[in-house]
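Hi V.,

You were right to ask for the full record rather than a summary. Here it is.
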Amino acid sequence: MSAQNVVSEETKDNVHELTVGVRWSDFDMYGHMMNANFIELAQEARLAFAMHHFYSRGLNMVAFVRHIDADYVRPIKWDGRHGTVTVETTVVRLGTTSFTTRQKIKDAQGQVACVIDCVQVTIDPDTQMPREVSEQERTIILENAVVELDEQ
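Predicted structure:
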């Protein structure tokens, strides 16, 4: 999966939506999307979220993945033609040095197939060590939060 597969991107009601075209190679021999590809889709959507909200504003926010939790709700099946999936990304928690995104991967019919929670830690690019989320980053994250946040 790559940026060239992006069909559309928009943010509304604090939800960043990225719609991506799928390829037959994203599926196993049984016609189900392979588990690892859900993680790749989520990663691509997190990068698009960061590009849209941080990098486009001149911020070089470096965040490393600390933990990923994937709940596979239903399979996405290959239908024999080029379909799409939509990844909705929202911020559900903000800490001192980290934040958590929740991503819902939906099939072409809009049914949730996988829910991924991802804890990301902000990193100082020079020391490669965790650092506090800056005030500017915190403001952007809070602008895109959909639930009560855990202020620490």
